[in-house]
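[09:14] KT: can someone run the structure on this one? pasting the chain below
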Amino acid sequence: MNHTFTGQHTKQTILQLLQQQGYEFIKDTITGKYSGEILLADYLQAALNRINGELPVKVYKEAIRQIISVQAETLPEANEHFHKFLTEGIIVEDVEREKVYKVKLIDYDNPQNNSFTIGNEWKIEDAYQTIQPDTILFINGLPLVLIEINRYIESAFLQLQYYQTAAPRLFSYNSILIVTDGQYAKVGTLTSDKHQFKKWRIAGNNPDYNPDYSSEMQGVFAGVLEKNTFLDLLKHFIVFSNQRNKHKILAAQHQFNAVNAAVKSTLNSYISGNTNAGVIWHTQGSGKTMTMVFYAGKVLATPSLDSPTILILTDRTVLEHQLRSTFCEFQELINQAPVWIENRNHLKSVLAGYSGELIISTIQKFISPKDVNDPMLSDRKNILVIVDEASRSQQGEMGLYVRKALPNALFIGFTQMPFEKRDKNIQALFGNYIDVYDIKQAIEDELVVPIRYESRLTDFTPENKKQKYTRLIEITEEDELSEVQQINEEWIRKEAFWGHPLRLKSVAEDIINHFEQRNEQVTNKAMIVCISRQVCIELFNQIIKIRPQWYNPEDEKGVIKIVMTGSSSDPYEWQEHIGNPYRTNILAKRFKDPQDELKLIIVRDMWLTGFDMPCLNTIYLDRPMEGTQLLQLLSRVNRVYGDKTNGLIVDYAGNKKQLYEALNSYFSIREKYKDERQENENIREIKNTIIQKKKEILNSQKETLKELTQLAKEVEKVDKEREKLNLSPEEMLFYSALNTENEEMNALGTDTLIQIVKESMKSIQELMTFDWVYKASVQAKMKIAIKRILLKHQYPLNEQAQAIEQIMEVAKRLDIPTNN
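[09:31] RB: done, structure tokens below
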């Protein structure tokens, strides 16, 4: 910590920030009439009257009685019970009048109809002890936010844990906890551990934003506690698990931003009749599935969307199970359990029923040979299809079949992977990026840990040193099982190399030494990734030869195991390692348990996607990989856990170049998103200009109408000229950059100018890299190339410097596809 801490100064800063947002400071909190109270009765009563109007007095009394007496077996359960009061209201039955009333505690539609008050150093008397938190924020007299200030954030967190034990009744009403040291601040809930308290930046999820950590505390108080934002969080972005060990989750800022942007885009698309709502790309480890839960909850709560049926599509059974598990665990937010689809006919019958349901299915259940000529499942408009990992399944025949099955449905894509070159049509299918949240942002927000890379190539070389082993194509375990794959000569050569006994012996020895040394430094769980199932088994045998004590045939025991698929036709010695769902589940539970002796897992494909294990520390990579495969691998070890500071990839297969290329494609999306944001901003500016022009028309109709008419004529003139010249819109911009009105330019002739434009664009494309706008060396080469073209076509010397600068400026503003 590099700032001077003063508790009183921090309280005053917080007080000023909140008062600027309309919070009222209660001055008589320590010795006045509110001393010792948890609820502010007069504020509460006034708010109930204001929000609900004239209800019978006994109805209000009963509502307040239920608030005061809220309790449950555990504190999180009591807190969940009260949270439902906040979001749904309190049901009060008047037996005498045979009427049922709903008493609302919060006015979500009109934030200014609620009271927002601040209490500093508030003494709370509970059955156990008296505590004095630094600051409590009351909304309508209810203590919903507790702020603790300390020189060290961890100490502030521990103080909150003590308060929960000393005065649990206060925490029955709490919605959000904030800890701060005067410079930094984090937000969490009463069940969050210290690593689950998250940052919140006032600048939002802007890719251009560079965090100014000196204002991080201000970011929390001006962000989370802004009245509209706070009420939105309260209603739509807090959820409780339905597990026995109940957990309360508050959305992270990137989830809050993405969901609100996605709901807005969804609504705009639905109203306009557009079937593409856009794409959300959030990096691995940032809580994509929970973002989908929050999104589904808010969509179902948006009346203008006509209570849509939500269909969540994935392309893998394991991911279908994981999605179902998560949505079942947090079904409170969507007010229903998800519908599990058995087959196409079942899906068709569900879609023909009531709207407002949430369905989870694999894309494969859409396809039936019987229905090829009649693929229609439903022509309803109020169906929202959420496609998980959009790039994997939506470009081929499967994606086309889904669109034919649901021709009027609205589609939105979620992905953790950047779209590769082969995915260029994805945005045509789904629309523009709605929100992008990449690894760099996630690391800055401490949602994931950095990844370290370590290359440890073995000394083993095959006997035939001239044999070239080309990179492994993507072959799944299912493919590997096929007879065609078994007789593939290239595959056999590759497996012979990677599985050579001398090579595997060297790898096994190195893994053991490295693992044991790392285990002395950190509590280590590790995964070994091999090229084939056979190599998995042979490497396993090499390891247990060296460390026989690690082996145990029973699934419930042993330090090392293999997780792989297979069948009864596989060799007998493989059967011990082939996993049915029951065995796989046992091993998954053991491996995820930090205290279990199972420390090493060997896989080929299993658990490389969708397997969330925060305590996994190291991956030993002994197979060639590239692209999204590598990025998915990184996400297995980048989860935050305990005191884990980084994840480690130990590479025995020389994947450094492929990893660099994958990360380059990853970060290029951020630049593309920035360009799209700029383009959208330009469109907004144009729309605003048009609106302003319309206002001017109302004030001075004739004159302004003439201007608009002239402007329209000029635009029409440019369009006609472009069509006449047979130029694309981009080429027309380059053409306009040349001073075509100059007499010397006219002397060159139109054909020459067009040739200059086309050759300049081609040269720029050839020299482009994804980050060329930041590299002076690349720009210098472009300028030289353009100058040569101008000289070649005898472009006037006195006009060349200006032409080069204008061409470069146009290139920077356009999203020209690169040839590199």
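[09:33] KT: thanks! The chain has 30 helices and 25 strands.
[09:34] RB: yep, looked fine to me
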